[in-house]
Structure formats: structure tokens, C-alpha cells
Amino acid sequence: MVGLSWPSESELDGIRKVVAQMSGRGTEEVRVAVSPYRICPLGAHIDHQGGIVSAMTINKGIILGFVPSGHPQVILRSGQFKGEVRFRVDEVQHPRNTVKPNDNVHVNGSSKSQEECSWGNYARGALYALQSRGNQITQGIMGFISGSEGLDSSGLSSSAAVGVAYLLALESANSLMVSPTENIEYDRLVENEYLGLRNGILDQSAILLSRHSCLTIMNCKTKEHKLIHPPKLQKNHNIEEPKAYKILLAFSGLKHALTNNPGYNQRVAECQEAARVLLHASEKGDMEPFLSNAVEPAAYKAHKGKLEPNLARRAEHYFSENMRVIKGLEAWASGRLEEFGELISASGLSSIKNYECGSEPLIQLYEILLRAPGVYGARFSGAGFRGCCIAFVDAECAAEAASFVMEEYRKVQPKLASQINPDKAVLICEAADCARVI
Ligand code: GLA
Question: What share of the chain is helix, strand, coil (3-state, %, to 5)?
Fold first, then answer.
């Protein structure tokens, strides 16, 4: 794990001390589940339809310090939310179905106080997932969870990072050997069954499979994945690294879903309706209504006229986004960052025009990023209802691009911009590794 800047030794020491104090154990007994946030440069909104997605993790995320409690009790505290969560691992957990309408807002696009009462849902959801697949969980944990400051509910998949952290901690405390593939499925149970969000497996796949400096490609239908390394370029007999890049996160200041927002689950339902129409037209009406089952691109072309205009736009996003991922992985593998970036920006545009999931501040940020110096490409992170935009930028221009974006965003959204800590308005990040327990 070369060149990993997160979590720092001082963050790890800090959390070990908190857990040692909370549990009365020594700091050397404290284990830490590290679960990074993810970005999805290409392949937005198509995981739930069995599409092909690309992902990476960044050097920010969730850390969960814990010790096995020695009995069935779970006791958790949080660096972000008040109160203490307590439950027993021998209590059988049942789905809550707190449907989250937009992206992965923690609970129901809710007020902070609701979130404070329900932050323990992800830990209960992790227990639910493990129990419902027959795992023997007898030992609880005492733990303290903390997210990189100000980055929760930002479209960086904080919910999946939290879910994965609890899964890893419960598994470690109960000496269970669980593969990343199984944990992808367990986290799917947390989100789809326990919480009722109909999302795909992009987030947890990115968190569990990514490797430093690689692009992770995941086929969400077959569940096959591969890691694409950037090339080593040959110049005058010397091996050269490809051009250095950084990842910019530009925050909108919008933390919660807009109330009149159509919502994540609604878009999923529209994609499925489009799939139904296309499957019916291609005499495959008995197949499950996912766009990946629907049609080959040629049949899509033949039947797309049968779709209502809004459903046609959702299908257009799905089919064009799959193509962009395929082109994007070739560009990445050959070190063509400019082309990779152009595909990211085209993906962003399709999210706005075809998937129609943006919000005004996010669209403004996207447009500003496209004008910033050294930016290869940009798009919303996550569903784009709130949170941040991501961009790939030439490492040498990253600082200049960050100042440019901050200035320009302040001009178009002075009120929202004033609510963001200026030190956190635009972050310059790097690619990271997968989730693990240390
Ligand atoms: C959210 C969901 C993911 C994915 C993205 C959009 O993060 O949790 O499953 O659909 O939005 O690409």
C-alpha cells in the first residue's frame, strides 16, 4: 500500500485512544476498520440496471475503531452524531425500510435531529445482513466511528462506507472470514433490504475492490470485475509514470435533498419501465425488467421509438453510459487522460440531460469545473441531487483550479458558498486503496 496518505498515524492513534478510554482496554487491543469514500468517474446511475461501472476510492472516508466486547452487546459512539447506540447481536434484526429518496442521504432526506437518532441503523443493518445469511454472530463490539470532516451526505457514498466498516468490524470480532464478493452482497442487503433504497452495487464494490492507482471496472450484472492499471510509458529507454493527476472534490453546500426532488428510487423505477417496454418489443417480456437484460444496442435502436419521451431519455443514458465506460477503460489503460476526462464530462452532461438528476448548484459547479485550468473532465458525484462534483485535473494545476472554482462558485451561489468552510470548499484528493481492518 504505497503512498497512502489516509488515514494518518495521528488519526489512527486518536481513534485508538478514544476506544481504549471508552472500553477500558489498552490501545494495542483496538482494531480499526478503514473504509474509504468512492468516486465513480464513468458509469453513473447504471449499476441498478446491471450496467458496467468504473470506480476508485479516495484518501478520505470512515474509520471505525473497535474492540470485541466479549459479550453480545454493541456499544457505539460517533464523531459526527450525538448519543450512544446500543443493541445486542443476539436480537434478530428486521428490515426498517426507511426509504431514502435521493442518492444515499442517510435517512429520508431528514433533518439533522432525525439523523442523530438513527445513525445506528447502519450497524443494525450490517448485523441484519450477516444474520440473514446464516452467520453466527455472538460477539458485539464497542466502537467509535468517525468520517472525514464535512464529507457525509456528499455523494461520495458515505452510507456504503459506513455499512462496510460495520460489516468488517462485526466479522473481525467474530473471526469470520468473508470475501469482498460476499461483503458486496451483504452491503447490498443493508441498503436494498434493510433500508429500502433500490440502489445498485457500485458503491460497496468500489470500496471493497479498489486498489491504489487502478481503475476498478465492475460488471454489475455478472458481478465480474477487473482492475485497470495505468500504463508505464517508455521514453528514451526510461520508464516514465503517466501524467500525474489529482481528484478535485468541489462542494455545493447542499447537504440534503431538495424536497420537490423526484428522487433516486423514482429514476430506478423509470429505468425498469423502459426495460419492460424494450423487452416486450423484443419478445423477451418474461425476463426481469433491467436495462442490461433488455436489448443489444441494435435492438435498442430498433425499438426505442416505442418509449415515452422521459423513458427514452433514461434508456439513452443507460446505453450511452455503458459505451462511455468501455471507451473510458481503454483511454485509462493507454494513459490518455484528456480523452478519459472528455468522457467523464460527457457522462456528466448525460446525467443532466437524459437522467435529469441534477440540481441547479451542482450543474453550476459542473460548468465551472469545465472552465477551470487543467481540468480533464468533471461530473456530479453520486446522483447529483446534493453534495459535490468531482473532477480529474492535471496535478500541476490542481491548486489553481481549486481557487478558480471557489471564486466562481461564490459568484453564482453566494449563500450556499458562505455556508461551506472555505478550507473545505474544494478538496484536492488522491486515489486510495480498499477497505480493510488494521
Ligand atoms: C448512488 C447509489 C449508487 C449509484 C450512484 C449513481 O451513489 O448508491 O448505487 O447508483 O448513486 O451512480
Answer: 45, 20, 35
